[in-house]
Structure formats: structure tokens, C-alpha cells
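Example complex used in Figure S2.
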Amino acid sequence: MTSQSTQSSHLPDGTRLVYGTATASYQVEGSTTADGRGPSIWDTFTARPGTIKDGSDGSVACASYERLDEDLELLAGLGVAYYRFSVAWPRVQPTGSGAVEPRGLAYYDRLVDGLLSRGIAPMATLYHWDLPQPLEDAGGWPERATAERFEEYAGHVVGALGDRVDTWTTFNEPWCTAYLGYASGVHAPGRTEPAAALAAVHHLNLAHGLAGRVIRSLAPASALSVTLNVHLLRPASDSPADVDAVRQADGLANRVFLGPMLTGAYPDDVLADTAPVTDWSFVRDGDAATAHVPLDVLGVNYYTPAVVQAWDGVSPRAMADGHGASAATPWVGAGHLEFLPQPELPRTSMGWPVDASGMAELLLRLHRDHPGVPLAITENGAAYPDPVGADGVVHDTDRIEYLRTHLEAVGRAIDAGVDVRGYFAWSLMDNFEWAYGYDRRFGLLRVDPDTLERTWKDSAHWYAEVARTNRLP
Ligand code: FCB
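Predicted assembly (473 residues):
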């Protein structure tokens, strides 16, 4: 996402923004055995009983692998400037290393050309959670070799698609990969090993830096980004204990990635907080510096704020962090943190409290802490029940209201001087929502669960109008 690609348009407050929609390979593609695709950790995880709320998997998903042309036409109809999608590593390298599967790569080649021919800029994420299973069998992200394999994979994909991709994103939400995958176990590969989760954090940072350099050298005209689910954490009170609880959660959630990626160093307090879990001896000299490759844009996914307090160790512990129920905590080494439920706020079908002011607060904080780093909201949106009306249409006024209030918050942040380049609605269409399966619908487009037919919800019409006019109708 380069500055030249910013449309000359404005929100009511005079902001300039580009609009897009986002998806991820495993959530929409289906065809998980087509054209030589190898198994990913999500194929394995979903096959294990009890992992997915509705017992489903991504083998069909939205069948976007088969319906590429139809989906390209839908994107063109929406009139978005950008499409953010992810490349499935096991399509490109079925075993995660070695030979490239040309048929898998060809799909993304067609996708990129199909976008460009319709005037839509491609924003490609190299990793949105679907690790080739053989790499997990060899130890997964807690192993340094996985970062080295990722560097090779990046070379193949960026070598093939190169500058045709407007913006390359190394990772989507490495927080989820590390902590939900290896600590709480609610995401693939479903391991609950706190020390391994921190090793995964490090190897994701390292892999980001290695791949970032590959992107810089092979696609010098493309923009470079990473997408983080930077947590907006508010203290329950201004007591020193609650303020320190936020410091610790912020370290684990945010600064453990922002530090290496944006400044080339791990925060000392995070290393100290987690010392009982690991000595971080997997970090080699120069690794943190390698993780630092200046970004053209930092992608931020925002859905909901969290309220943190220090647990007294006696009362029942509240863990309303929005990250799924598990006996094992994703908050590695932070056994005294509580996340309060925020009953005063409305909720989406995910149970996530709705508070658009958190979006502006988060953008302002990132701007203050990292001035000069352009930002984009790479995901924002809401799951709602979405009943089909008597007229056959989903009248999702709740989703429109969610999007409107969050776009207004982006506008306020821009007015306050934050450099926000773009906004991506999650998601283009209803899809496989990880541990929740198809039971949580985030789409602007409805996908019929039986026929896979796509239909426009009211929010799709609304968003198309926003993208066309850069105004909030
Ligand atoms: C984010 C993921 C995305 C989607 C939304 C709802 O954490 O990046 O794939 O599942 O949540």
C-alpha cells in the first residue's frame, strides 16, 4: 500500500482512505486436496473431534478455489480498491519445503491478474495460519528451521508474483499462531506448551524479518507490511496493580512483536516477566535486528477492547479476553491477570463487546509510540445472526452500524494526525471462522451453506457506496 495508491477522496471529516475487503486461504478456498495441495495443520486440527464448535472443516469452505472468476466479479461489483487475501503455503509447497507445485502457484497468479485486470490492487499475506503439516511434524513454529523454510517459501511466491502484488504482508496475527496454537491450544496445532509458544513468537518475528528482506529484494516496487492484532488493553482501575497488569499483558500481546519488528529489540520487561517460563536462549545474536525491516505500512486488526485487572487469586477468575475457552491460558507466564467481561457494552455473535472508541484509541497509541509508521486497518467487522428476510435478503443493520461507527473512529484518528492509509472490512463473505466453524458469519456477502450461492447483504450495498463515494451514507 504505497502513498501513490491512496485515492483522492474523503470521509465527512476530510480524510483520505482506501477501502478493501479481506479473506484468508483456509477460510474461503476449500479444495484442500486439489492440484497437489498438501495437508496443513488446520486440516489435521479440524479432523480431531471436539476442536471445532460445529464439527466442520475447511475442505469446502466457500469453494473460492473453484469459483475464482465469480468472486473476482463480486469484488469488482463492490468497487473496492484493494483485496486482501492469503496464499496457502501447502498449495505452493505441499510439504513445506523443496519443490514448488506449479498448479497451486498458478491459482494465485490467476487471482492477482484477475484483480489487476479489474482495477483492484492485490494485498497478499504469505501466512494466515495454514502451516504445511510436515513442518509441524518437524516441530512447527517453536523450531528455528520453520523460519528458514518460510524464507524459502517467500522466495518462491514473491519470485513468481513480485511487483504485481501492490502490498506484501508477511504474517497475519502472529499472536494467534503462537499463543492460540501453542499455549491455549484452541487453534491448530492445538498444543498447550507455554515455553514452546514463546519460542514460536520468536521464530515468527525472525521469519518476518527474513521474508521481509526477500520481499524488499525481489519486489522492490511493492509495499511491505505485517498485520498484528494489536490488543487495546484498558486497566480496570488506576491502581498500580491494574496498571502493571496492563503493562504485562501489553508486553505479551503487543510489544513482543512491535519491539523486534519496529525497533529491532525485545522489551526487557517481557523477558523478565517470562523468565520463569523460558530463558529465551533460542534468540541468537542478531535475530532481533533481523526482525526489523522498515515497513511501508503496519496492518492492524481491531474488533474489540479488553479490560485487564490484577487477579486477587481468590475470587473466580474472569478470562473474558475474547480468545476462546481453554483450560490452558494463552497469557504465558501471567497467571495473575484477569480480563473483565464489560457487560455495559453490546456484543456481536462472537461475544465480543462492541466499542468503536477503542479503534481510535489504538490508532492514536500506535502513532504516539511509533511515529512515522503508516497504519492500515487490515481487519474490522462483526459476526451477527443474519437471518434471511421474507424478501430473501439479509438486512444486517447491526453490521452496518458496526462498520459505520468504526469508520467514524478511523476518521477521528486521522483528524488527530494519525497516518491511516486504508480500511479492510472482514470479510468479503461468510466463511470458515476457525474454532467456531460456519456458525459465525462475518461476510458482507452471504454464502448459502448448502448451495454456496453468494448474495449481497444490505451491508455489502452500504460498503460499496462507501468505497465509491468515500462518504458514510
Ligand atoms: C481474526 C482473523 C481472521 C478472522 C477474524 C474474525 O483474528 O485474522 O481470519 O477469523 O479474526
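The first strand starts at residue 18 and ends at 22. Residues 194-218 form the longest helix (25 residues).
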